[in-house]
Structures are given as structure tokens and as C-alpha cells.
Amino acid sequence: MIKNVHGNTVDHLGAAIVAGRWAAGASLPPEPALCEMLGVSRTVVREAVKSLVAKGLVSSGPKVGTRVQPPEQWNWFDPDVVVWQSRAGLSREFLRDLQELRRIVEPAAVRLAAERATAEDVAGLRAAFEGMRSAVEEGGDYVTHDLAFHQGLLRAAHNRMVVQMSKAIGALLRTSFEISTTRKGGPRDSLPLHRAVLDAVAGRNPAKAEKAIVALIDDAREDIDMVLASRKRLPKLDQPAPWLRAET
């Protein structure tokens, strides 16, 4: 997607902050300096700063200027923040937090999905699963279907807060899926685990569904640990998800 001047300015400043160009508590350069640095007007800079304030990266006020907030204040559910972190490098701490979030949210949501999923919900899960299977066997975009499967599970809980969370954590989930997918054989090995979740939800068995999703999350964590140990290059989320090659 092509960004406009405002988007490019937000992207440039946000990525620089997440990469540590300005430490927490440090002030951004004054407006004239930022205008010259970025080649944009004061209006663009001011609007970009407002966007960064909304994302929790900076605070701004009279006489104190614009100061960088500590990472604990950043909105980690904001897709831009996650993308900037992927550019700067995905730390073990970041990935640990992600896996712990999944362990907290998904099992409870899947229990609800097993109780509340509609026929339409289950059909969507089946379609996403078939997309994953097709990508493994014939080649294609596995990650997008994997994301659709997990977001479909959260929507199937039919809890408005969880549904909103499914939108917010999309970039975080994609981070996990892209990393685990880089392990050779990882996508194929995960198919039976996804199938177990699907069957338990379709069969309206909450306990079995919860057990199955925990097994799937733990398997993903092991994949991520193996990828980190191998020192493979980690994905950059501002690029399209890589396609799988057909397995023969």
C-alpha cells in the first residue's frame, strides 16, 4: 500500500523511536528541525506527532516538547507498532510476551467458541483450514489462512470484547505464524493440531477444544524457540507473507 506524506512521516518517526534512535524520556528534535530532516511542512509534523501520541510512543505538551515514552506505554495492539518492532528486531522478550498473551486469551475464547459457534462460524473455520492444507500440499499463502483461522475462533466466541481483540492482535498473531512457518515442516506438522481444534469446536466440546488450542500454541512456541536458536533471519511484517512451496 502506498502511503501519503502524513503516513510516511509517521512511519519514519515511529520506526526511528522503536529502533531506539531517541531513548525513553528524550525529546524529539523541535519542529523546524524535523521539517528540515523529513522535508515536510510543520502541519505534517504536527499531525504525525498526534498520531504517535495516539499510539503511545510519545507524549506532548506545552513547555515540555515531545518526549519519547517507555516501551511499556506503547500500544502493542497497534499494527504499526508491531511492524516497527519487526524492522528493529523481534526480541525474545517481545516473543515471550506474545506467546503468553496467546496462552491467556485463546484457550478461554476457544471454550466459548465451542459453546457458541454458529454454522457460519464453523464453515469459515473449515474454509480457513482448507486454505492452510492447500497451501501446504500445493503451495500458496499459508499465513493468511492461518490468521483467518485463529481470528475466526476469536469471533466465534461471540463476545464483543474478544471480537474487538481479534482485530487488535492480528499483527501480533501474524508475527507468531510467520516465524513458526519458517521451520521446515512446521506448517504440515501443525495441520493435525488445527484439525483437532476445528473438530472440537464443531463438535461443541469446550474441554477438548481448550486442550487442543493449548497444544497448538505450545507447538508454535517450540517452533519459535527452534527458529531463534537457529539464528534464521526473522520476518519483516511490512512485507507480504511468504508463500509456501508445494511439498512433493
Description of the structure:
By secondary structure, the protein is mainly alpha-helical. The protein folds into 2 domains: 5-73, Arc Repressor Mutant, subunit A, CATH 1.10.10; 79-230, GntR ligand-binding domain-like (Four Helix Bundle (Hemerythrin (Met), subunit A), Up-down Bundle). The protein is built from 11 helices and 2 strands. It has helices at residues 5-18, 31-38, 42-54, 79-88, 92-116, 119-138, 142-156, 160-168, 170-181, 186-202, 206-230, and strands at 58-61, 65-68. It has a two-stranded antiparallel ribbon. It is elongated and about 60 Å long. It starts with a helix and ends in an 18-residue tail after the last helix. The mean pLDDT is 91. Keywords: DNA-binding, Transcription, Transcription regulation. It comes from Ramlibacter algicola.
Percent of residues in helices comes to 55-70%
Number of domains: 2
Query: pLDDT average, as an integer?
Result: 91
Strand content: under 5%
CATH superfamily of the largest domain: GntR ligand-binding domain-like
Termini separation (Å)?
A: 34 Å
What is the 3D form? Answer: elongated
Low-confidence stretches: none
CATH class of the largest domain: Mainly Alpha
Using only C-alpha atoms, the radius of gyration works out to: 20 Å
Brief summary:
By secondary structure, the protein is mainly alpha-helical. Helices cover 68% and strands 3% of the residues. It contains eleven helices and two strands.
Features:
248 residues; mainly alpha; Arc Repressor Mutant, subunit A; 11 helices
Record the SSE blueprint.
Layout: H1 5-18, H2 31-38, H3 42-54, E1 58-61, E2 65-68, H4 79-88, H5 92-116, H6 119-138, H7 142-156, H8 160-168, H9 170-181, H10 186-202, H11 206-230
Antiparallel strand pairs: 1-2
Helix pairs in contact: 1-3, 1-4, 2-3, 4-9, 5-7, 5-10, 5-11, 6-7, 6-10, 7-8, 7-9, 9-11, 10-11
